[in-house]
Amino acid sequence: MTARLKTTLAALALSLSLAGAAHAQAVKGIDGRWEGPVTLGNGMKITVVFRATTKDGVTTTVFDSPEQGAKDIPATAKREGDTVTFEIPTAMVVYTAKLSADGKTLTGDMNQGGGGAVPLTMTQKPASAAAAMTTPAVAGIDGRWEGSIDTPIGALGVVFRASTAGGKTTTLMDVPMQNASNIPTLAKRDGQKVTLDVPGVAGSFTGDLSADGKTLAGFWDQMGQSMPLTITKK
Fold this sequence. Notes:
Distance between the termini: 41 Å
Number of domains: 2
Order of helices and strands: HEEEEEEEEEEEEEEEEEE
Oligomer: single chain
Radius of gyration: 19 Å
C-alpha cells in the first residue's frame, strides 16, 4: 500500500468533510454492503465498506470505515462487464475489482491519486452494527468526557464515552465537528494515569485523573504529533 493511501485511511474520520451522497445511473448486480480488510501504516487492519442501493433507476453509493467512525462518505460506482469500480472523490481513492460469477465477491486493487495499489478482496455482507471494542473493567472513567484539541487549523472538539457492564468497559470517541462518531477506543488505567487508544485513527490520549475524578489532563498523540488535551466529565 502506498504511504499516501495508508495516511488517508488512517486519518479518514478526522479529515474529511462529509457531503451529500453520490448518485449514478442504475448499476446492476452490486446492491448491498461490501466489506474487506485494509492494513494501515500502524499495522492495524480496519474494515472498509461500500454500500450501494438502487431505487427508481438511480444507484446511490457511500463509503464507511466503522473502526474510524467514518460513515456515509459519498462514493460512486460503475460496472463494465464483470469489472466494478468504486471511487471516493473527496479522497481520490479508486477501487477496481472483478465480480465473481456468483456475484458475492469483489477481487481487485485500491489506490489513491494514481499511486501504488494494494490488493483488496471485498465480500457481500448483511447489514451489521458499528465495530466495538471492550477492555476489562476500568474503574472511575464511566461517563462522557469532553475537550478540545488545538490543531494547526483551529480548535477541534472531541468526546470520549465510556460505560462498564458485565465486567467490561466499552469506550467510544466522537468528533462532532467532522461528523465522526462511535470510533472504537481501548481504555486502561494505571493508578491516576488513564490511556485511551484509538487504533483506527492511529491516535492515543494519555492523561492524569484529578483527585475528584472529573478531569483528565494530558496529551493527544497522533502520527508523530503531540498536542495538549484536557477532557472533563460532563
